[in-house]
Amino acid sequence: MNTMPLARAFTLIWRFALRDLRGGIRGFGIFIACIAIGVAAITAVAVVSRGLTDSLAREGRVILGADAAFVTLQREASDAERQWLDRQGHVTPVAYLRAMVRAEDGNSVLVEGKSVDASWPMHGKAVLSPDQPVAGLLAERDGVFGAAADPLLFARLNLKIGDIVTVGGRRFALRAELLSEPDKLAGGVGFGPRLLILEEGLRASGLLQPGSLVRWSYRITLPGTPEERAVEAVIADSKQRFPEAGWEVRSRMNASPQFSRQIDRFTQFLTLIGLTALMVGGVGVANATQGFVDRKRPDLATLKSLGATGGFVFALTLTEVLVLALAGSLIGLLIGSVIPPFLLTLFGHLLPLPLSMAIYPSELARGVAYGLLTTLAFSVWPLGRAHDVPVSGLFRDAIDQDGRLPRWRYIILTLLAVTALVALAVAFAWDRRIAMIYVASAAAAFAALRFVGLAVMDIARRLPRPKQAEARLALANIHRPGALTPSVTLSLGLGLTLLVALGLIDTNLRKALTATLPEKAPSFFFIDIPNVETGRFDAFLRTAAKDSTIDRVPMMRGRIVAIKGTPAEAYRANENAAWVLEGDRGITYSDSVPLNSRIITGEWWTDGYRGRPLVSMTRDIADGLALKVGDEITVNVLGRNITAQLASVRQVEWRTVGINFVMVFSPNTFAGAPHTHLATLSFAQAPDGAQEAKLARDVALAFPAVSSVRVRDVLQAASDLVGQITLAMRGASVVALVSSILVLAGALASGRAARIKDAVVMKTLGATRRQLFLAYLMEYGILGLITAAFGLAAGIAAAYGIITNVMRLPFAMDWTVAATSITIALLVTVILGLIGTWRILGQKPAPYLREL
Amino acid sequence: MLDRTSPPAIVLDNVHLSLGHGPSRVHILKGIDLAINKGEAVGLVGPSGSGKSTLLMTLAGLERADQGKVIIDGQDLGVLNEDGLARFRGRRIGIVFQSFHLIPTMTALENVAVPLELGGMDSAFDRARQELNSVGLGDRLSHYPGQLSGGEQQRVALARALAPDPAILIADEPTGNLDETTGGQIVDLLFKLKNERGATLVLVTHDLSLARKCDRMVRIRSGLIEADGVAA
């Protein structure tokens, strides 16, 4: 027998599929909705992410405030450097530092100070209220420099425009509110509100002491509209001319790497949640496909009787399902593309950069790929059964349902589709390890819930028959063929697992930040304590804060420039340690092993050690950078490259917030170098807000150059940030829950005909509507409870694993989350179930009996 | 027309067939020997459960004999794999079912064209149109099965079975779902078309008057041929 040429077979399959689809898509509503919702979620996340990344690239010059920026730490550019910078183009020097702003009434607030010159901002526009030119606003008038500040500062110190504040040793007039700065992203995120002053003002304040924690950013705007190559050439020249400068160089093409990374990370988590929604929806896809195959069995058998092969029948049904999946994916794309602009109009003002969106073909294509692969993963198995639809059934007018496994080729095809789906998810993930852990956990949850569904049915089957008729019916409905049990446990269970896990992670994280940590954490950090004033500062604190513990260490900022002789930017670090190589880090020196640390390998240097510079590193970073005792690391501190040998690796108990540094050097390394100190102040019993405020005020008055950071404020800010992030994630997880509900509704709808038949027969045999109602109520109630229990268990397990193993925090159960999820599961199952069966209760038997 | 000079169109040699698994396995065909000549019309009769439908399915290659040989139109069905059987069936065997089994989402024309399209015929729709004309449904080409009466549906099924010009025509209670008058019309049409094309017809029926229209009547009982003779 000749087989048909492939191209001809495809044409024929396509023609047959279209013919069949012409008859309508009954039973596929839920299928399409499940795919559409998942694809919409993933697409919306991808479009927003791409929009942000593109805006970041497009607005790079505005965000950076230049074509290239050269950032030095704790030092200004040398004369040679400055001359070279001036030769390249227009230079705008901007200095960042933390400082205390003191109001006339003595109250003070930590601010993120920023000094600029008259040409700032070179790109974009600073929004001031009242609107006025920046240079004029900040200039000195009658011996007083001007300043603009974040409205938050006005609120915190109860100030108004025109009021005078003191910064360091100089008075400034607050002449405007600073509503936005174009280069805010490039400056990074700070603890306090922004205070904008002129460079001359900063110099006059006396805060620029040797070793002060000041970050100078020299921004070059090249003449005209330079191409990227020109910018790269300048950067390359800088590296060649000043190999020892140790400055951090950024170009407009890479204006805010931290923000880019945050976008990537957030995108990944939201995408994984979207994928969970697709996976939950996959159950709906599988149910709808099984229903489709069951409905089509006579037609498929007829086709086979007319000469169609099993493979042809499979290909035909698969084509139909894929056409519908494509339709679902396209609807998803449409929704996913409409949501971001809508969100932008609502929340666009919260974004730190102007966001514009376009059509992104690759993101949209990826959305479709996810939709189609999910469909394949969940439909090939049930469709594989179409291959073996027996034609002989046509002679008996009864086509039996088939519970056998599909042929091997379809099982393999299913596995291939699942693998492709996982590969796609992992390939586009920012952190592949996390993506793989997530996929593995999701697969485990899927398998566990599938097992639970089967186990529940098995147990229900084996239980002794209850005497009460309603309970008997409910029990029978739980285990009979075509029961709702597997769909409910699997899809709703998965949705709940996600909801519970995210809920618990959220509450645990926030609790750690607002309740657990503050108990262990010091109340204050003091930074920029001048070296010469340490004795006076300690004495002051001992008097001002009795019963307190003061911990003070020298502090500098340094940047790792080379590891084992390889430049830091070329060094391949583990993802967990890569952050250490980006930007500057706090470093210190010490004669003894810091508190909360213990040596794992190597040895601490002896007292009064005078040999070559040595350094001790924390274990996670040393491991992440693949460093062993004896390896060399070069750090640029105060414009000098210092190469030190790794002498020891320490294990640090980071959970106790206190002073600890990734890198601790031997004291001789920095002998004579100007630097300041960092101190923490801890109380046996935490003081109240008023006491803390008074202490901050007293310190500000006595030591104008010292900045006080209230840990309580920092943790609250962090907690708020976590709250916002987890809110977005929980919002996304609702999508998964909606998919669960859809799947459940679909499963109920597909079983409706069988239920009507049952109800009619039961009524004919004397069952009252009340009895039927009770039976359904029991069935849905039991299913809801079981699903809630297992969804809760899986969610708690997932959250426990993440909190204790990944975040290394203590886990505490939040029963509100548990109660909410149980309630949701019960309500969803019972309400949806009863909506579906309400009409059944009202059916008159006669019309159905005539058709039975 | 009956052709006794050529080799038989259908040969069954000691065919045994059991269905089901384990304790529910039933031995249905218990050694059937049957030869049907080209162009012959054979009526299979017998009580319910005697094995006549199973025999029909074995002839169509829908059930595989456990033992014995089934040779249809010169082809030993035992050597064909499942796909080979499907293609052979599509070209050489036409089947008419009691419940018509038209595909509800296809028009009459498309239903008839299906086996031709599956067989790779370029002019499938022209041929299907001719077939529908020959069963008197030239004006119902674009009707869906749901828009046709039972008799019309069976005529479409007949046109579909005959469209690939099969050597063997198998009919399972073709009038079982029709009223007497319509059933009579279908039977007349079935025999007329069979004779025009020289096809071999094997027909299962409970209706003895229908069986008598055949050249030969084979009575099956308990999986064995009880009687085989000229229908009278």
Give descriptors for this structure.
heterodimer, A: 852 residues, alpha+beta, six-stranded mixed barrel, B: 232 residues, alpha/beta, six-stranded mixed beta sheet, four-stranded antiparallel beta sheet
Proportion of residues in β-strands of chain A = 15-25%
What portion of residues of chain B belong to β-strands?
Answer: 25-35%
Q: Structural class of the secondary elements of chain B?
A: alpha/beta
> How far apart, in Å, are the first and last alpha carbons of chain A?
44 Å
The mean pLDDT of chain B is 90
Main sheet makeup of chain B: 6 strands, mixed
Q: What is the helical fraction of chain B, as a range of percent?
A: 25-40%
Report the count of strand segments of chain A: 21
Report on this structure.
The complex is a heterodimer of chains A (852) and B (232). In chain A, helix 11 packs antiparallel against helix 12. Chain A is an alpha+beta fold and 852 residues long. With 232 residues, chain B is an alpha/beta fold. Chain B has helices at 52-59, 82-92, 108-118, 124-134, 150-162, 180-197, 208-212; strands spanning 10-19, 26-36, 41-45, 67-72, 75-76, 93-96, 168-172, 200-204, 216-221, 224-230. In chain B, helix 3 (108-118) crosses helix 4 (124-134), helix 3 runs parallel beside helix 5 (150-162) and helix 5 packs parallel to helix 6 (180-197).
Secondary structure layout plus pairing:
The complex is a heterodimer of chains A (852) and B (232).
Chain A: H1 6-22, H2 29-58, H3 60-64, E1 68-73, H4 79-88, E2 90-103, E3 108-116, E4 127-129, H5 134-138, E5 145-149, H6 151-156, E6 164-167, E7 170-180, H7 184-187, E8 194-198, H8 199-205, E9 214-221, H9 228-241, E10 248-251, H10 257-305, H11 310-347, H12 361-384, H13 393-396, H14 408-427, H15 432-462, H16 469-479, H17 485-520, E11 524-530, H18 534-544, E12 548-563, E13 566-567, E14 585-589, E15 597-602, E16 614-618, H19 619-624, E17 632-637, E18 640-652, E19 663-665, E20 676-683, H20 689-702, E21 707-710, H21 711-750, H22 752-764, H23 769-806, H24 815-841, H25 845-851
Parallel strand pairs in A: 3-8, 5-7, 14-19, 16-18
Antiparallel strand pairs in A: 1-9, 1-10, 2-3, 2-6, 2-9, 4-7, 5-8, 6-7, 11-20, 11-21, 12-13, 12-14, 12-17, 12-20, 15-18, 16-19, 17-18
Helix pairs in contact in A: 1-11, 2-10, 2-11, 2-12, 2-21, 10-11, 10-12, 10-17, 10-21, 11-12, 12-14, 14-15, 15-16, 15-17, 15-23, 16-23, 17-21, 17-23, 17-24, 21-24, 22-24, 22-25, 23-24
Chain B: E1 10-19, E2 26-36, E3 41-45, H1 52-59, E4 67-72, E5 75-76, H2 82-92, E6 93-96, H3 108-118, H4 124-134, H5 150-162, E7 168-172, H6 180-197, E8 200-204, H7 208-212, E9 216-221, E10 224-230
Parallel strand pairs in B: 3-8, 3-9, 6-7, 7-8
Antiparallel strand pairs in B: 1-2, 1-4, 4-5, 9-10
Helix pairs in contact in B: 3-4, 3-5, 4-5, 5-6
